[in-house]
Amino acid sequence: MRLSVAAAISHGRVYRRLGLGPSSRLDLLRNLVTALVRHERIETPWARADEMRGYAEKLIEYAKLGDTNERAMRMANFWLTEKDLIHKLFKVLAPRFQPHAGSYTRLLQIPNRDGLDRAKMAVIELKGNPFPPLIRPRRDTEKTLLNQLLKGYREDMERAAAPRAPEGTPV
């Protein structure tokens, strides 16, 4: 029996294969971008969020050009499946991000989905949204090797600096 690693080799594929085919992938991405514009924070599997992030940021770049720009309107018309959101994109989101040069979204990992697949989940949100901020998980820095070494060094220095009783005197 021969083992192969064909799944790990991309052979020119530059994007993830989401869904059943190219049209299914585009429909999924369009729905995710629409949901992000509508709700400004969505929870989805990590791969989908990571793949959709670039398209959402590119759409906001186009929206910053204004609603009189024909290309920006065509992009908004294509990517937003709910046409009432075009107004929100150009009149609310584009002015919010006008002074910023890029990085309009924030992608945070959340605990894996319960159930059969245990998929890696993420929250993707537009920066500057009205929701309370998500708590970013901090690394437990007490357990890192460098901090353990520093802790041991401090303890050794405290022991060396502590006054010692002269030898031969009862303690």
Strand portion, in percent? 5-15%
Q: What structural class do the secondary elements suggest?
A: mainly alpha
Number of beta-strand segments:
3
Helix content range of the residues, please?
A: 40-55%
Name the strands of the widest sheet in spatial order: 1-3-2
**Radius of gyration, taken over Cα atoms and rounded to an integer in Å:** 26 Å
Q: Briefly, what is this?
A:
The protein is mostly helical. It has five helices and three strands; from the N terminus they run H-E-H-H-H-E-E-H.
What does this structure look like?
This protein is mainly alpha-helical and 171 residues long. A three-stranded antiparallel sheet has the order 1-3-2, covered by helices on one side. Helix 1 crosses helix 2. The mean pLDDT is 87.
Protein topology:
Elements: H1 22-39, E1 41-45, H2 46-63, H3 70-79, H4 85-97, E2 105-110, E3 121-126, H5 145-161
Antiparallel strand pairs: 1-3, 2-3
Helix pairs in contact: 1-2
Key features of this structure:
171 residues; mainly alpha; 44% helix
